[in-house]
Hints:
Elements: H1 15-35, E1 50-51, E2 63-66, E3 72-74, E4 77-79, H2 81-93, E5 98-103, H3 109-122, E6 126-129, E7 132-133
Parallel strand pairs: 1-7, 2-5, 5-6
Antiparallel strand pairs: 2-3, 3-4
Helix pairs in contact: 2-3
Amino acid sequence: MRSLRPGPGRGANDDDRILPLINVVFLLLIFFMLAGHLAATDPFHIEPPVSASETEPGDAGPVILVGPDGRVAFDGKTVDDAGLTAALAAPVEAGVTHFRLKADGGAPAVRLVEVMELLRAAGVRKVHVLTVPKAL
């Protein structure tokens, strides 16, 4: 006949049995914290143009956004032309000369040229235009 009382190898109370479950929950929480990617959202929606280029722009350099209506954002904030020039002063003085331009595919080309001229006047030497790779 079997006894219903806990044997010598089992815990004396329910807390000992729930401790492994708590450990697994904490391990899953740590895994998802490390595997998850949190990123700030852009101030406005941008659909980058499609490109056949396979060049990787890399992750270096701050991102300047140009929306479909010509709005410009830098460092997560919408700025006007004077604000962009002022915002670029600090990184350029710190030695950052490479920037990434994430423009909407519907943004006016004239506005993109204006933004690039502002970048050049601020001392930016190289601009990577971000695009979406063409689907095969």
